[in-house]
Amino acid sequence: MRSLSVPRTLATLFGASALAAAAMLTYAQVEKTPAPEGAKVYIVSPEDGATVPSTFTVVFGLEGMGVAPAGVQTANTGHHHLLVNGEVPDMNMPLGTQVTHFGGGQTQTTLTLEPGEHTLQLILGDHLHVPHNPPVVSDQITVTVE
Questions:
Q1: CB neighbourhood size of 140 (10 A)
Q2: Long-range contacts of range 46-53, CB-CB < 8 Å, 24 or more positions apart?
Q3: CATH homologous superfamily, domain 6-145
Q4: Closest by CA position to 117, among listed 98, 94, 143, 141
């Protein structure tokens, strides 16, 4: 029988509970968390226009705010969401399945993509996965996978 560490299990359950609660909110109930003036999220690497192998690391950058896990409500913080090959979703609703959630406060990830051109973009979400007001969204970059 495999045992899980209590802190990780609780963090996973708490994050999943926060995501489920956020998903149940309706447009009228969503209260957007303010973002400080000048807050900026960006992709540190790879650079826009880079050619990358099929498996590569994406490093997230953030200025003017801090990173906190999903479910943790602290002023001027949020957590990353990565949009791969998609359109920016409704910024008035909790971010859903159209993005990859990094609710543990991660600041990088490893992606494996098929050969060809792909777009990457970051969106910062608050404790309930709702984009801030104003939204903190990176420029979209394009990478070519070999």
A1: 15
A2: 46/141, 46/143, 47/141, 48/139, 48/141, 48/142, 48/143, 49/141, 49/142, 49/143, 49/144, 50/143, 50/144, 51/143, 51/144, 51/145, 51/146, 52/143, 52/144, 52/145, 52/146, 53/145, 53/146
A3: Immunoglobulins (2.60.40.10)
A4: 143
Identity at 100, one-letter amino acid code:
T
The pLDDT value recorded for residue 61 is 98
Tell me the HSE value of 17 on the side-chain side, using a 13 A CA sphere.
8
Structure-block tokens of residue 140: 């979209």
Tokens of 99: 């993005």
Domain spans in the chain, listed from the N-terminal domain onward: 6-145
- Beta-bridged to residue 42, according to DSSP, are 61
Tokens at residue 8, please? 């990780």
- Per the model's pLDDT, the better-predicted residue between 1 and 45 turns out to be 45
Judged against a pLDDT cut of 60, whether residue 12 lies above it is answered with no
